[in-house]
Every structure is written in C-alpha cells, then in structure tokens.
Amino acid sequence: MLADRKYRVGVLGASGYTGADLVRLLIAHPNTEIALLTGERKAGMSLKSVFPHFVGYDIPDIISIDEVEWPAIELDVVFCALPHATSQDVIKGLLHSLNHSILDEMIVTTTADQANSLRSEVKVVDLSADFRLRDTETYAKWYGKAHDATDLQKKAVYGLTEIYRDDIKKADLVACPGCYPTAALLSLIPLLKAGLIKTEDILIDAKSGVSGAGRSLKEQNLFVEVSEAMHPYGIGSHRHMPEIEQELAVASKNDVTISFTPHLVPMNRGELETIYVKLEGNETPETLKAALLSAYENEPFVHILEGSIAPATRMVRGSNNCVINVFPDRIPGRAIIIAAIDNLVKGSSGQAIQNMNLMLGLEETTGLMQAPMFP
Ligand SMILES: NC(=O)C1=CN([C@@H]2O[C@H](COP(=O)(O)OP(=O)(O)OC[C@H]3O[C@@H](n4cnc5c(N)ncnc54)[C@H](OP(=O)(O)O)[C@@H]3O)[C@@H](O)[C@H]2O)C=CC1
Ligand SMILES: CC(=O)N[C@@H](CCC(=O)OP(=O)(O)O)C(=O)O
C-alpha cells in the first residue's frame, strides 16, 4: 500500500454519535477521504447543520442510503454505524449491489472471468451487534429475531483488534465488538488463555456514559432521567452477555457463564468496568498483573497502569486507549480488575478505524494517536 494513498471512505449513520466520532477521527486520518455520509431522519442536511462543531471542515452532505449509487461511488471502505437489525439488511444489500467477492457462492454469472471482472473488494467495518455472534440461534434468542444474513454472519471476523489482528488483516467484513465487551474481553482474555483465573464466578459491574445509548430520542435518556442519578439496567438480561461469553469461551476452551450488570451514569462519554474474578491454584493478583503486562507489552492502545493507580474514564476520554489495573480482594483467592475506555473511541469508532488500518495494510495506529483530553 502507498503511504500517501487516500482511501475513499463512507460512513453509514453519520448523523449518530459513533458516526460523528468516526468523522472526527477520519478528518485527521492521513490516508482517508470522506466520500459518503448517510443518515435517515437527517438525510438531505449538511453534517455541519446536524453537528455544528464540524464548522470549517470540508465534508459531504448527508444523504439517504437509498440514494447511494453503489458501484459508481467507488468506495474502498464502508463503516456501518447503524442500529443493529438495520445493519445486516443494509450490508447484505450493498454487498449484493457491489457483487462483492465475499458472496462467492451466491454470485450467479455465466463465466468465471465475468464474475471476476464484476467483483468488488470493498472493506466493510460494522459497528453494530449484527455480525458479532457466530451462532445463528444465539443471535435470534438475544436479539429477538432471526438473522437475515446468516452466510455473512459466519464470514465476519470479530473485530477485537488485539486478539484477532491476523484474521482482521485478511477480512472483508469485520464486526466491531460492543463497548462493554471491549473492556471486559481485553481484561479477561489473557488471564483465561493462561489458565490463571477460574471460568466460573466472573462478575462484571459496568458503567457507561449516556452517549452509549445513541442519539435517537428515548425518554429514559432525557436530562432529567439521567442527571444527578445512576441506575442499573438490563440486569441479568443484557445482550452483551452472550457476546462476552462467546469470546471468553474461545479463550478458555471451556463454556463460561458471567454475571454482568451495566449502569448508566451521568456523563457523556466513558465506560468503567470493575471485574471480580476467582484465582486458580496459587495465582495472585500480582501474577495476573504480570500476565496482562506481558500480553500487552507491545500494544499501542492497551496500558496496564503502574502500582495501585485506579483506571478512570478521565484517563481515556477522546482516545483509543484502554487502561487496566489489577487489585487484591479482601476475600482470599479473588482479585479485582478495573478497566476504562471511551465508549465512542476504543469502544466503537476508534477500534473501527484501527481495524480499517489493518484491513488496508496501513500502520495500525494511523490517525489514532491523539492523547486523551484532560480535564
Ligand atoms: N454509542 C456507542 O457508544 C456505541 C454504539 N455501538 C453501535 O454502533 C451503532 C451506531 O450507534 P450510535 O451512533 O450510538 O447510534 P445513533 O442512534 O446515535 O445513530 C444511528 C444512526 O443510524 C441512522 N439510522 C437509524 N435508523 C436507520 C435506518 N432504518 N436506516 C438507515 N439509517 C438509520 C441514524 O440516522 P438519523 O439520525 O438521521 O435518523 C443515525 O445516523 C449501533 O449499532 C450501536 O449499537 C457500538 C459500540 C458503542
Ligand atoms: C449506555 C447504553 O445504552 N449502551 C448500550 C451499549 C452500546 C453498544 O456497545 O451497543 P451495541 O452492542 O449495540 O453496539 C446498551 O446498553 O445497549
């Protein structure tokens, strides 16, 4: 890949929170040119009128997905920042319009030459939950509907970059993890892989800023409902549980059942997870920390904090970083792991761009090295 090449990028769902953060990061990315922005209710508006903070930047107007002339627009990458269930139909439709090579067995042409000449290699990075679960029945159970693109569901690569880097480099369709799973999995996978913690009794207490719920109008997200207050939701039933369990099972080579309770806290961005684990055999909080330090030694975005510094959302705001630390628990044989990310960056748009960089053969950190904003 040429270091100075500009890739043509489209953002579906640019009028939402993750879409807007994608635009913010893509503006500063040296190898991307924003060629398409879509919205639903905001179609026909300029992005600057939807998000006035983009004043001064040369960005295309928002159009409806139905208006996109797919092959002609010649995109190299499509980010899909749409609600789950919508995303699968849109991605299936666009890959068919493009006669994409991922659809190999579905392409109906008379000759192999014809098929090759029509094939597109556009890269698709989905931020929604639609392609994260590998099992069709698990998807139907937790998302309340049958999946409309099961062939693609099987071909998508789970986009937890630090764990699936080699697969992501070769992928055409990447399913970025949910924000809660990102922090939980980065904390737990190296420990389960090394057999340092038990697969039972993993308790995840999670907190998110309100932008995690998206920009569409919902009564429970009004200022009066969320300010000066904090509340749990999805207790025992949140759809991120099967996603976290799926990936922990891969790491431990055993079934894992977790307890996971998310809370909504009155801040715009940020996510903090306090994770209680049971140690295996003679393991200690110190051996857990040593394992995390070793696993993430060369990682640009995952940082294990020194001493007893407690991860906090203010340490990662606006950045693609995940900060983690391990603490002893007063209950013998247990440890406490705490992780913080920005849900709109490492939890969605930043990780999506990290994956795009790999898919295009660019340096993984390109456009993502902004330091966190503090205060
Ligand atoms: N917010 C977060 O922290 C995270 C979000 N995600 C996932 O990323 C995706 C986007 O989230 P987020 O940005 O928060 O959501 P928002 O609700 O803020 O934005 C959704 C976007 O999708 C568009 N849209 C909605 N319905 C349709 C439709 N039927 N057809 C076409 N476009 C449509 C909206 O357009 P318009 O507004 O113009 O109607 C808007 O641009 C979701 O799947 C979410 O679960 C993943 C990780 C973290
Ligand atoms: C605060 C809040 O509401 N957060 C969202 C999760 C955001 C996210 O990661 O959503 P996806 O899995 O849909 O991509 C929720 O709990 O549903």
TrEMBL record:
Alphabetic keyword roster: Amino-acid biosynthesis, Arginine biosynthesis, Cytoplasm, NADP, Oxidoreductase
Keyword NADP (UniProt): yes
GO molecular function: N-acetyl-gamma-glutamyl-phosphate reductase activity
Involved pathway(s): Amino-acid biosynthesis; L-arginine biosynthesis; N(2)-acetyl-L-ornithine from L-glutamate: step 3/4
SUPFAM superfamilies registered for this protein in UniProt: Glyceraldehyde-3-phosphate dehydrogenase-like, C-terminal domain (SSF55347), NAD(P)-binding Rossmann-fold domains (SSF51735)
Limits of the Semialdehyde dehydrogenase NAD-binding domain: 8-171
E.C. number: 1.2.1.38
InterPro entries from the UniProt entry: AGPR, AGPR_AS, AGPR_dimerisation_dom, AGPR_type-1, NAD(P)-bd_dom_sf, Semialdehyde_DH_NAD-bd
Active site: C179
Keyword Coiled coil set for record: no
Compartment(s): Cytoplasm
Reactions catalysed: N-acetyl-L-glutamate 5-semialdehyde + phosphate + NADP(+) = N-acetyl-L-glutamyl 5-phosphate + NADPH + H(+)
NCBIfam families per UniProt: argC
UniProt record similarity statement: Belongs to the NAGSA dehydrogenase family. Type 1 subfamily.
Function recorded in the entry: Catalyzes the NADPH-dependent reduction of N-acetyl-5-glutamyl phosphate to yield N-acetyl-L-glutamate 5-semialdehyde.
Stated name of the protein: N-acetyl-gamma-glutamyl-phosphate reductase
Encoding gene, per UniProt annotation: argC
